[in-house]
Amino acid sequence: MASSGLYCHLVALIFVAVTIQQGTCIKCWTCRSDSDPKCADPFDNSTVPISDCKQEPTLEHLPGIRPTMCRKIRQKVEGQWRYFRSCAYLGEPGIEGDERFCLMRTGTYNIFMEYCTCNSKDGCNSSISVRGFSFAGIAVLASLSSWLLLVFQRIW
Ligand SMILES: *[C@@H]1O[C@H](CO)[C@@H](O)[C@H](O)[C@H]1NC(C)=O
């Protein structure tokens, strides 16, 4: 049926438009706890700067990619917690769209890392992550994005 196909494409286009719209105008907390202890959890937003991601530079190693999300990274290195908050260039908000989930990875040399992304609202990287998610989630994300690619190829 031609009409239902058209409907699907319209929905996909609206989805893309909304995603782009959200992405271009988000503000994120920007700090790192090794230079500002208030960057840690519990987060104290009273003196931490908030950046408009639109104003952030395009990174040299990511040409053409604009920051459209916020992120919060929590890292334990040799028993010390470090926190980083900033605009995010890569990835998807949350895990399968659920911003309560973060990617977690345990590395060598006593390093633990938690990586959270969000784009639900300005300053959403204040405190996310109540629960973690293992890097097995990557497989889900990868299959999701290849599915999206397939959809896009059918549209354009
Ligand atoms: C900063 O935190 C306070 C208390 O949690 C909150 O009410 C306020 O909205 C936050 N400010 C911004 C700019 O998000």
UniProtKB/TrEMBL annotation:
Q: From the record, give the transmembrane residue ranges.
A: 133-152
Top-level taxonomic group? Eukaryota
Pfam families the record matches: QVR
Keyword Secreted applies: no
- Tell me, in one coarse class, where this protein mainly resides: membrane
Q: How is this protein situated with respect to the membrane?
A: Lipid-anchor; GPI-anchor
Print the keywords alphabetically. Answer: Glycoprotein, GPI-anchor, Lipoprotein, Membrane, Signal, Transmembrane, Transmembrane helix
**Gene Ontology biological process terms from the UniProt entry:** regulation of synaptic transmission, cholinergic; sleep
**Where does the UniProt annotation place the signal sequence?**
1-25
Subcellular locations according to the entry: Membrane
Might you report a single GO cellular component term? Answer: side of membrane
Q: Which CDD domains match?
A: TFP_LU_ECD_Crok
Q: Which InterPro entries match?
A: QVR-like, Sleep_regulator
Report whether Ribonucleoprotein shows up as a keyword of the record: no
| Record-given protein name | Protein sleepless
Q: Which organism is it from?
A: Gryllus longicercus
